[in-house]
Known about the structure:
This protein is mainly α. The protein has one domain (2-257). The protein has eleven helices and no strands. Helix 2 (22-51) runs antiparallel to helix 3 (55-75). The longest helix has 30 residues, at 22-51. It is globular and about 60 Å long. The model has no long low-confidence stretch (mean pLDDT 81).
Amino acid sequence: MHEVSAILAIAHRDFVKLLRDRARLVSDFAFPLIIIGVLGTSLQAGFGTPGGFNLLTFVFTGVLGQTVWQSAALGVISLIADREQDFSQEMFVSPISRYSIIFGKIIGESLVALPQALAILLFGFLIGVPLSPAVLLALLPVAFVVAIFGGAFGVLVLSNLKSQQSANQIFPFVMLPQFFLAGMFNPIENLPWFLDILSRLAPMRYAIDLVRDVYYAGHPEPVRVALLDAPTNLAIIAAMFGLFMLAGTTLFVRSERNR
């Protein structure tokens, strides 16, 4: 119970920080809505309708998975801010597991990502994306799983970064290629062999594919959209999560000790 209380306290701190950061609130909500509204609608008008495939829902599910996953991953950058303010030192000398500290940060950023998921779902409903009550209920826990997965990836990437400036420079190079390799708004089933290898290594791919598993189970298309079934995606996500947590936490704690 002592460890659980520590995890919840750290998670609550990160969620309260979001509510006080109006600039982040606006940017976090605006970007995915613009992508769905502009890119999704234009692709549907130009290619989806003539081809008989709903590209709006394809982009919608891709942006939903990408936004939740990336929001949690980027949010863990607050570990760097805490380090620069020496707040992380205070946490690491407390009598709780370091894994509890890291997991509390991930839970907090996952809670931050959930309001974004709700906003995207509401926006999708307003622009005509088919959303049944059963699919909505199923997508919420999936969004939380995706967010936790993204947070673990963020810990791994940030574990050896020394400052927020270096994190802000590195993250675009880590995230941007995954937009295309994960199939956020483009099909990736028949990629050239070298891109297929990179795509299979991209963690975001499995987050987006899991969201599509759940969505298209309730709103099937005439062609198969999801690349893998939900149990396979969940197994891969669980394995990657364990690896990211173990390696990321170990490297981050080591860097703290070497300061």
